[in-house]
Every structure is written in C-alpha cells, then in structure tokens.
Amino acid sequence: MKKNRMTEKQNPGEENLTGTWYAVTAFGLWGILPIFWKLLTEISPYEIVAHRVVWTCLFCACLLFLRRRLARVREIFTSKAKMRGLLLAAFLLGVNWLTFVYSVNSNQVLDASMGYYINPLVSVFLGLLVLKEKVNRWQKISILLAFTGVLIIAFQYGKIPWIALTLAFTFGLYGLIKKTGGVDAITGLTIETLLMIPAALGFILLTAVNGKGVIVTGPLTTFLLLMSTGAVTAVPLLFFAGAAQRIPLSRVGFIQYLTPTCFFLLGRFVFHETFSLVQLVSFIFIWIALIIYSFSHTAFMKKSQKKLNRSR
Length: 312
Prior knowledge:
By secondary structure, the protein is mainly alpha-helical. The chain has 17 helices and no strands.
C-alpha cells in the first residue's frame, strides 16, 4: 500500500498539474500585489520597503528554523564568492522593491506592467551578453521589437520610461545572479534581507525618534499590514520554487506573463490610470515581441528559420 502511494506521488502527470498550479498561484499572487500596496498609500515607499525587509527576513528565518536549515545560512556566510553575489542581489532587490512600491503608490502601475513584460526579454539579452548563450533569429527580433516599444514612449514623451526599465533590469540582473549563485530561494532571500536589515532598521528607528513613522503615529491596522509584508513576499516565492522543481522552465516563463497582465488590467480598469494611444502602440510592440519570443523554440518557428537561411 505504501509503495502504491509513493508511486502515485511520483506520477509525472500529477507533478505536472501540481507544478502548473503552483506557478499560476505564484504569479497570480504577485499580480495582485498592487492592491495590497494601495492599502499603504499614506506611508512613504521608503518606510514600506524598510518594514518589508525586516518582516521578510524574520518570516524567512522562521521558515528555515522550522525546516532545520539555519545552518545553511552560516555556511554561506563563510563563502566570500557567494556573499559578494548576495550583496549585489540584496542591492538590486532593494532598488526593485522601492521602485515597484513607488510606481503603485504614485499611480504608475501601467509602467510597472511594462517593466515586467520587458523583463523576460532583458533576461534573454543578459544571457546573450554575460553568459554567452545562443539566441535564434526570432529571439533577436523579439528583443528589437521590445526595444522599439520603449523608444516610442521615450521619443513621444521626451523622457525614458525609467520605472519600467529599472524594474526590468534590476529583476533581470537579480535573476542572473540567482541563476549563477547556487543558493536556494528562501535561504538566499533570508541572507539578502539580513544584509539590508541595518539600513532598514536604521531608517525605522530614525523616523520613530523624529516622532514620525508608523510605529509612533500609525494605527494598529497599518502596522499589522506592514508585519504581513513578510508573508506577502515569501509565500509566492515558495510556490514559485515548487513550480520550478516540477515543470519545465519554459512553461514557468510563459506563465510569468500572468503577473504583468494582472498589473495592466488593475492599472487600466481598477485604478483608472491614463492609457494613451502612444502607450497602446508601445505595448503592442512589446506584446508582439513576447508572442514571438514565447514561440521561438517551437518546431514551426525553427522550420521557418531554416527556410529563411536556405533562401539566402
């Protein structure tokens, strides 16, 4: 009977289905994050991120303690190479969190949506540039189309869409470091937030000493919301890790578009942000780029590339 149960647990079909739902849950939870941050609009993004760092660190440390994996943290602290990578990852994560919270609370969720639509293509570009990975013709076209979409907004408004680009490149670089760092998600996040703790606690205490901040002036409900940022940050990451273990990364990559799609729908139809014709054209270029990129590994696209090569 036990043998049958183990066989059932290892059934590839069930693993695939479970992994797919884990991915949908992870990216769906990330997708509705703007609703959560909107509950904290009266607080500065700096204070929100400071609290997020502290409570995420505590939440992740508790998870590691329950799993009896705190010793892993001590091991990593003895590795200079890994700590250099995690220090850079902590900086990128802090910038990404601050930019995202600012974009939500300043009514620029559509810019955040653009950033996370561009992110997969930034990852491809970084893989090509840093890891010397090979990309096919269609992937190159998708990168150029996304770049064109960004340029359209830059030329029309006379400014670079810095929120979108900051989110895309900080998360892209963060992913690159995580890919080459050899540290699991929860352990890595624990150490990254631990490295940010001095600055975060310093900011919280400084605002409290000056008679400001949630600790001094805020209602209990707001403080409880800030405490929950630890779970809000870590839980989707746990689902993501579970998905990555069960299903191909190509499927994970495709499902990740759920997050910026949720951002886009929330920004346009829930928060009623302005969406101009220029933004629409820019998004169309990026959406076409993502469609081409998503199907760039399919047999049909590979055959069409071979035909193009032969016609030359």
